[in-house]
Amino acid sequence: MKKGCRLFYFPFIGSVILELGVSFFDIILNIYNPDFDAITYDIEDHISFLYNVLLIFWGRYLVKKSNTISIEKKRWLFRTS
Fold first, then answer.
1. What are phi and psi of 68, to 5 degrees?
2. Could you read off the pLDDT of 4-60 as tens digits, one per residue?
């Protein structure tokens, strides 16, 4: 597996860690409340948005830097004339 493909696992692993943290606070420390749940979902939402934006720019960078993609295909991908 390429090193870059490991980034695709980040959202899943991050979400699992965050949910386990919420469960830990609820079961062990008994400090869980609905506001904390709303904050958790807001954090997950913002992180997923930023991750998708990162993938868009990273994909553009990889296509631009690639030597194996023809100029015509790059022009089509970037929609430039």
1. -90, -10
2. 677 778 778 887 887 787 777 777 777 667 777 788 788 888 988 998 898 888 888
Kindly report the pTM of this predicted structure.
Answer: 0.58
CB 24 within 8 A of CB 46: no
What sign results for the dihedral spanned by CA atoms 59, 60, 61, 63? positive
User: Which structure tokens are listed for 20?
Assistant: 């386990």
3-class DSSP assignment, residue 4:
helix
* Secondary structure (DSSP) of 25-69: IIIII----HHHHHHHHHHHHHHHHHHHHHHHHHHHHHHHH-SSS
26 Cβ contact list (under 8 Å, min separation 6): 32
Taking residues 52-80, report their average pLDDT: 82
